[in-house]
Amino acid sequence: MYAANHHHTSLQRLNQSLFDLKNETTERLQNSFRKCRSYNGKQSGTFFLAHSVLLLQPRWSMDDPTIRQPGFALPRQQSSLLNRFRTGQGQCGACKKKWKLSDSDQRSCGETQTMSHIVESCPQTRLHGGLSKLHSADDDAVAWLTSYGY
Fold this sequence. Notes:
This protein is mainly α. It has helices spanning 2-37, 42-56, 76-87, 93-98, 115-120, 130-136, 139-149. Residues 40-47 have low confidence and may be disordered.
């Protein structure tokens, strides 16, 4: 009886977490839209579209938390780097500035260096297919991680 109740409670917690995540994402998207509506011009629409894609893009599948995600079996260095890109927290200019390890978040390409910028848009480092490709952790993504990480 305990095992059945424990399993039921775990499922309730998981469902609540998924519900909270959905609500948080919806709220973030609505706030982003409100900010963009307050700006004038073509650029605000572009910003909203790019920001919305990042907000709605799944970082990993939540369908079944027991299924190991792509890249799970990678060597530690590659796995760590993959997860840094998935979470957007790593050794990039923006994070180093936020953590007060650097005075500037600008890098040699002239843009603010964020983890998503490194993968998506930096002319020096971008991965063809961007974050979606990286999340798949296929051979091309792993080769890119290996070359970027060294």
